[in-house]
Amino acid sequence: MRHCKSGIKLSRTSSHRDAMFRNMVTSLFKYESIKTTDTKAKELRRWADRVITLAKRGDLHARRQALSIIREKDVVHKLFEEATEKFANSSGGYTRITKIGTRPGDSAPVSKVELIVAETTEKKKNKKKKTEGKETKKNEAASGDISEAIESVSGPGKDAETKSSPDKE
């Protein structure tokens, strides 16, 4: 029985499957996006997230573990240099899978796997400032509308009564 078995077989031996995903992860970090079938893309996401988590740790043991998965030293070096900057704010979900369509030869569903670059904190702060400015303008406009509505419902204020009282005399 297949209780608690993570991963998929893809009709391949374990050594072939591991080699295929190592090559795919290497290509993903080298080119930052690749095209593959949907099922391979879903499994590739697990491998890529694991390697990025190692790169965020950044110590020697993590680098050696990443070298056991990614077989090109240049790609590992690039990943460890850029991972702390790109993925510092996020704690998972480093890849995005976008469905493209079907492959012409065998009509297999094809997806594009790409790395998600996290926004820097400066951009987030700028967005917050812009939204806060819009909210204060809305609040001011709403308070002016409310005061006008209250005057129209309750009738004229004291100023109108004092002006009309001299006419009565």
Please describe what this structure looks like.
- With 169 residues, the protein is mainly alpha-helical.
- Helices cover 63% and strands 12% of the residues.
- It contains six helices and three strands; from the N terminus they run H-E-H-H-H-E-E-H-H.
- It has helices spanning 14-31, 38-57, 60-69, 73-86, 121-154, 158-168; strands at 33-37, 95-102, 109-115.
| Unreliable residue runs | none
What is the N-to-C order of secondary-structure elements (H for helix, E for strand)?
A: HEHHHEEHH
In the CATH hierarchy, the architecture of the domain at 14-115 is Alpha-Beta Complex
Record the strand order, biggest sheet: 1-3-2
> How much β-strand is present in the residues?
5-15%
Strand tally: 3
Q: Termini, distance in Å? A: 101 Å
Structural class of the secondary elements?
A: mainly alpha
> Which oligomeric form is depicted?
single chain
Overall mean confidence score, pLDDT: 85
CATH class category name of the domain at 14-115? Alpha Beta
What's the gyration radius in Å? 30 Å
CATH superfamily of the domain at 14-115: Ribosomal protein L17
SS field, number of helical segments: 6
Global morphology? elongated
Give the proportion of residues in helices. 55-70%
The biggest beta sheet, please? 3 strands, antiparallel
CATH topology of the domain at 14-115: 50s Ribosomal Protein L17, Chain: A
